[in-house]
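Late entry, written up from scratch paper. The run itself happened at the end of the previous shift, but nothing got recorded in the book at the time, so transcribing now.
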Amino acid sequence: MSGLGTGPRNGAVDIHFLSIKPMLGHGTTELRCVQPAAYLRAAGWTVATGCLWQDMPRARRLLVLHRVPDGPVTRRAIGLARAAGCAVAYDVDDLVFDPDGQAHLAGFGGPSGADLTAPYRTALRAADTVICATDFLRDRAIALHGDCVVMRNGLSQEFLDRAAAAPARAADAPPTLGYFSGSAHHDADFALILPVLLQLLSARPTLHLLIAGKLHVPEALAGFGARVRHQPFLPYRDFIGLIAGIDVNLIPLELDSPFAQARSELKYIEAGAFGVPSVASPTATQRRAIAHGRTGLLADGPGDWEAALTALLDAPGRRRALGAAARADVLENYGPARRQAEWQALVAAVLERHA
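Output as recorded:
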């Protein structure tokens, strides 16, 4: 959303963000590389972003390696940074470095029987500082590295401006629940609330459900015809526009899954920017982000989910109040001004410790 510019094409910069992926304009590279780079440029630093496999590290002060595995290219990048007297930070927003992340990484392929998380642990340990997207990740990473800090995800000004310009929901629009999956491997999460959704859709003939993104839609939903819409994966600019068309955002997560526990509050803040309230499973991250009953609702188990969704579907005024409170929370705590100050303070602290 904040653009794909990489900064100066040649020559050294103060700070260089390098990921294993190219800068995509959405997802993890947008949140953890492109947006922070924009914050730090606004604070006066020269900053570049790029792909580890394509770009040589050019940092004078700080090299940030975003969820890269160990290997010859990673070790060379760290070696060049060390030779330049540069600090190295390792940024991570998923449980890729912990054995509990093995199943997730296996979904993307890899040698059978290999510990796919080990290369991430090795790269993490080689850094001076570890930057984590959630408290859960920090608590896991601190067993591997003594210098771990939390830097939460935020939203760009472009995202917030687009949300502010979105048309209000028509008063006579059919009530619509929304589930958004920006990445694969959410089938088990969605299955947690499927029985409740089937019950509500059966009991409420005007209720609609929007499922957007990478999800295998259960066959059980086919009987509701056009009231259940599956929007396959779209470019991010189009994907987020779908949020304006729902009344309640669904964030089910497996509470016994460490990988789910490690996920950030991104779904809450994206929906909140549009003034849409969320009902979420009470992971540690969601409990921290959502003030239950004020900026959203937390639901643990089918009974809680049924009660929460019924309450919001039956009370449009309460939906709007929760959505307005969520938007105010997002603007105050997850916008560019807050994140710029936090990233500037983090860089200053890392450089001071490194010096």
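The longest helix spans residues 336-354.
(Scratch paper discarded after transcription.)
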